[in-house]
Write a structure and sequence with these properties.
The protein is α/β, with parallel strands linked by helices. It contains 15 helices and 12 strands. The model has no long low-confidence stretch (mean pLDDT about 90).
């Protein structure tokens, strides 16, 4: 057997051990989990998550997941808490403390502070009789499972279970609050997540940047508008402000003979493809790319509930600029 095969065998063993532990964790959930969710839902302040060492890393991730999914949260380092950061905890908060053993010395001051000021405490540990869980208002017990390292000394399985438990809490809270992709977008304006959840109204061009003329506008003036705005298209509106059509480079080529003697209404293409301001930018990009008669580079944005008034224009480069495509 090659070294590579031995490494793969080790990896599969680790994954199997941790997967089995997660199955145990799922089966072990009880009413204490419900109490933890309800306690967090009813809190007026934040979820303050604490942990030391590897549990601290999990606590940071847990706090970040809560915060990004509609549950205000922050991580407080237990050692720093003993040197002044306990002031970050208020009576309106709930404190979530992670410790596999439940006896981590650095957590003593945090636990004592919550007891002194009647701050709700949720403990997560692997031993029901541990000091942490005995003093907690809600005790979430990790089921007994072997660490994947084989020697039992490296936090592997235990931290995986704790991480999964945090995700389970976050998703339960999300579903209760009916946290939508639009809500998620508010906390993730950057990166790929932000790009995929961006709405058309977030990136469209409006106001003076919008290329627009009326149906009666002379083509000489229309060409100036197209040139000045730089999108290669122009929106043609009816007297009531509703969208009548658009003029593209293709329309100009088709009506080249006597073009300057015409009005915008005589040159425009009627019933153009449009999109609403609350549609996802990703949907707009798909429409531009999937046009059977060839890719279009711009979409005009209209109010779907009103008289189809032109609200903005979206260029394909705007989608590419935020990371779509």
């Amino acid at each position: 057997m090659s070294k590579t095969s031995k490494f793969q065998d080790t990896a599969r063993r680790v994954i199997r051990i941790e997967a089995d532990a997660l199955a145990l964790l799922g089966a072990s959930l009880n009413d204490e989990f419900d109490r933890a969710v309800e306690l967090i839902l009813n809190v007026k302040g934040r979820v303050v998550v604490c942990g030391m060492g590897k549990s601290g890393h999990i606590a940071r991730k847990m706090a970040a997941t809560f915060a990004s999914t509609g549950t205000p949260a922050q991580f407080v380092h237990p050692a720093e808490a003993s040197h002044g950061d306990l002031g970050m905890l208020t009576k309106d908060d709930v404190v979530l403390v992670l410790s596999n053993s439940g006896e981590t010395p650095e957590l003593v001051d945090v636990v004592a502070y919550t007891r002194r000021f009647a701050i709700p405490l949720i403990g997560v540990a692997g031993r029901p009789s541990s000091s942490l869980l005995m003093q907690s208002d809600v005790a979430l017990v990790l089921p007994p499972a072997e660490e994947a390292c084989g020697s039992g000394i490296v936090p592997t399985t235990s931290t995986t279970m704790t991480l999964a438990l945090g995700d389970a809490l976050a998703v339960a809270l999300m579903e209760h609050r009916v946290f939508t992709p639009a809500d998620f977008r508010e906390f993730h304006p950057g990166g790929k997540l932000g790009a995929h959840l961006s709405k058309v109204r977030d990136i469209m061009h409006t106001g003076d940047a919008l290329p627009v003329v009326s149906t009666h506008t002379k083509m000489s003036d229309t060409l100036i508008e197209i040139s000045q705005k730089g999108f290669g298209v122009v929106s043609v509106t009816n007297p009531d402000g509703s969208l009548a059509g658009v003029i593209t480079d293709g329309d100009l080529r088709r009506k080249m003979d006597g073009l300057l003697d015409m009005t915008a209404g005589e040159v425009m293409s009627e019933n153009p493809t449009t999109i609403g301001p609350d549609s996802l930018a990703e949907e707009a990009l798909a429409i531009m790319n999937q046009r059977k008669t060839g890719q279009i580079t711009c979409l005009f944005v209209v109010d779907p509930d009103g008289p189809r008034k032109t609200m903005g224009v979206l260029h394909i480069h705007d989608c590419l600029r935020i990371g779509l495509g």
